[in-house]
Amino acid sequence: MSTGSEPSGRPGAPAPAPWIPKTELGRRVAAGELTTMGAVLATGLRLREPQIVDKLLPGLHDEVLDVNMVQRMTDSGRRFKFAVTVVVGNGDGFVGIGRAKGREVGPTIRRAIDRAKLGIIEILRGCGSWECGCGRSHTVPFQVAGRSGSVVVTLKPAPRGVGLAVGDVVKPILRFAGITDAWGYTDGHTKTTVNYAQSAYEALVQLASLKVPPEDAERLKIVRGSVGSSILPPKEEGARPMRRGPGGRRGGPGRGPMRPGPGRGPPRAAPAGSSGGRGG
Question: Where are the alpha helices (DSSP H) in 125-219?
Answer without folding.
Answer: 170-177, 193-208, 214-219
